[in-house]
Amino acid sequence: xxxxLLFLSADSFQASLWDKGVLGEARYFxxxxxxxxxxxxxxxxxxxxxxxxxxxxxxxxxxxxxxxxIGRARRDLLARKFxxxxxxTPFREATLxxxxxxxxxxxxxxxxALTNPARISPWLDTLLSNRTPLVGIYSLPNIITPxxxxxPSNHVLLLSWEKDSGLRQTYFKSKRLHFSRLIxxxxxxxxxxxxxxxxxxxxxxxxxxxxxxxxxxxxxYIICHASDRLALQSHLEASSELRYTYLDIQxxxxxxxxxxxxxxxxxxxxxxxxxxxxxxxxxYANPEHTHFYLTWQLxxxxxxxxAAISVASVLWSGFTFWQGRHYVADTEPLQLQTEQIRQQTxxxxxxxxxxxxxxxxxxxxxLLSRKLDRYSPSPESVIRNLTLVLDKFxxxxxxxxxxxxxxxxxAPSPYPAQVIELDGELTKFGSExxxxxxxxxRFQQALAQRGYTVSVQSLPLDVSSGGSISxxxxxxxxxxxxxxxxxxxxxxx
Amino acid sequence: xxxxxxxxxxxxxxxxxxxxxxALGGGIIAISNKYQETSRTDRQIAQKQLAEARTQLxxxxxxxxxxxxxxxxxxxxxxxxxxGDEHRLDWxxxxxxxxxxxxxxxFKYAVAPQQSYVPNPPLDAGNFQLNRSGMTMQxxxxxxxxxLRLLTAMRTQMQGWFMIDGCSLSRTxxxxxASPLKAECTGGWLTMKNRNxx
Lengths: 493, 198
Prior knowledge:
heterodimer; A: alpha+beta; 5-stranded mixed sheet; 18 strands; 41% helix; 26% strand; B: 4-stranded antiparallel sheet; 4 strands
C-alpha cells in the first residue's frame, strides 16, 4: 500500500511517495506561506497515510529509573515526568529500555522529546487542516534500531549522514537507544572529515558517562556508499577503545528490502524506507495528531468489512442456490417417475371389473369378513381337540363345559382367544388321591400337547401348605374328586 | 477516540457501504435460503409422492391379482345377507326350519335390538359400518354333538352371519333324563353396511 513519507530537517522539509518498497523522488517545500500552500496541493493529491520523520538537533534524551507500575498509576507517573522534563512541547515519548532483574525490579526508561515544537507545528497544522491520516511523528534515532539486527556488539555508535540535516551519531547499549546527536554537515566532501573529527568528541562524552565501561571497545558503524569508504578509511584510525566498521548502504538497502538504488552516502532514502517498512511502535505524535489516521483506519475497516460481507454473502448464497438447483434437479425425475407410476396404476384400475361397488370397498369388505371370521371360530375348531383328549381319559367325567371369546387372553395372537372352563370329576380312584392327581396332570399335559394353555382353577384335593384337608378313615366311601380347569385356545397365524 | 460530525461525513461512504453490504448480503442470503428450503421441501414432497404412488401401484397390482377372488367372496357375502341391512324375518324362518329338522330336542332364542359393533381387538372397517343384533339361545340336548350340528346348520343353511361369542354346556342330573344336557350360547347377527350405500 502506498505511503507518504515526510522528512523534516533543520533547514528543509520534503515529501516522497513510497509504494511497494520503492521510494519516489523527494519534493521540497519551503517553510513559508507559498511552500505550505504547495504542500497543501500535494496533500490534496495524495491521501495516503503519512509518516513524519524528524531529524533535528532539538531532541533531548533522558535516562531514568522509575518504579515498575501498571495502568493508571503508570500513566500518571509518565505524565508527571513529561511535565517535569518537557512541559513546553507536546512531542514527547517514554520508551521502556528494560526492567531491572534485582532489587525493586524498577523500569529503566528513556524519556525523549522534540524540544522545539515551533519547527514541526507549521507542517503538522497543514497536515491536520487537510485531514491527512498521519500515522506518527518519528525521530531518526527512534527508527534506526532495525539496522542493528546483525551487529553483535553491545556498545555501538551508529553514524549516518543525511544530506539535508547532517551527521547523526546514535549510541546504543545492548541494542537499546541511549543517546543521539546531530552535527550539521554542509556537503558530501565534509562527511568523512566530520566523522573523523566528531567521533572522538562523542567518544569523550560517552567516556564521561562511563560508556562503554573501561576495558570495552566502542564499535563505530558508519553507513556509507562504497565510493566514500576509501576516503573515510583514510581519515579514521582504529584504537584499542575505538573500532570502525563500514556498512555499505546498498547492502543495507537490500537487507531491508528496499527497491531503490543508492548512489551516495546520503542515508535519508534508506531511513525513510526503513520507517515505512518497519515503523516502530512508539512515536511523538499524540492521539489528536493521529485522529485522522484512526478515522482513515476505521473507514478502511468498514470498507473491508463491507467487502468481506459482500463476498461471504455472495459465496454463501451461491452455495445455497447451487444446493437448491441440486434439489430441483433431483425433484424433476422423481415427479416424472411418480406420474408414470400413477398412470400405470390408473391403467390397472381401469382394467378392474365394472361393478357398482368400488374395488376398494369390495376388497375392504372381503378382508374385513376374513378377519372377523377368525374373531368367531366354529365351536368344532375350539373343542374338537378337547373332545379327542377326553375320549382318551375315560376316568374324567365332564359336568359342565363353557367357552367364551376373550380379547384380554389373545396375545400373542391378534385375534380373540377362546377361554374354556371345564368342570369335571375323576371317577374310579376311590381314596387314591395321588393316582387321581397324577391322572389329572397327564390330562393337562395331553391338552397342552394339543395346543391349549391349561391352568388349574381347583383340584380334587388341595395338597398345598395353605389348604385344609379333612377325611374319615373308617369308611370306604370318598367324596367326588371334582376339579375345574381353565383352558385357553388361541388362533394359529 | 471521539467521532465528530466531520468524521461522520468522512466515514459516510464506509458506513454506507457497510450497511448496504449487510442489507444486500442479508437479502440475498435470505432469498437463497428460501429458494433452497422450497426446493428441498419440493424434493421431499416428490419423494413422498413417489413412495405413495409405488404403494398404490403395488396395491393395485395386488388387487389385480386378487380381484377375481374378492369379487366372488363379496358376492357370497351379499348373497349371505351379511352386507347391507339385516333381514330378521329370514333369521326367524331359518331358525324355525332348523327346529323342524330336529337337530336338538328343543331350543329357545331371543334377539336383541341392533347395535353398532366394535370388534375387540379393534379392526379398521374402512368404508363399512359394522352392526350386530345380539342373540341368546337355550337348548336341551341329548349329547354335545347336537349343539355342534345345530351351530353348523345355522352357518350353512341360514342367511346371515351369526358370530358366536361363547357357549356353555352342563348336565341336568342323571343320564336317564330325556334331556341330560342343557346348552346356552350367546352371539350376534353381524351385518356390514357400506356408508355410501343408499
